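Supplementary Methods. Inverse-folding protocol.

Structures were first reduced to a discrete structure-token string of length 52. This string, shown here, constituted the complete conditioning input.
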């Protein structure tokens, strides 16, 4: 080991946060993604969101 580098600490770069991951969403198979059933009521399967 080189004597001039013996006292130097090796530093690493600051950790960078990962970007947020988008959740996978699928179109609701009951309302077709509209959020309403055939009677115009909120789809009970997806709770009116249109995706599962």
């Amino acid at each position: 080991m080189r004597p001039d580098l013996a006292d130097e600490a090796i530093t690493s770069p600051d950790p960078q946060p990962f970007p947020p991951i988008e959740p996978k969403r699928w179109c609701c198979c009951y309302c077709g993604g509209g959020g309403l059933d055939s009677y115009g009521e909120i789809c009970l399967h997806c709770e009116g969101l249109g995706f599962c």
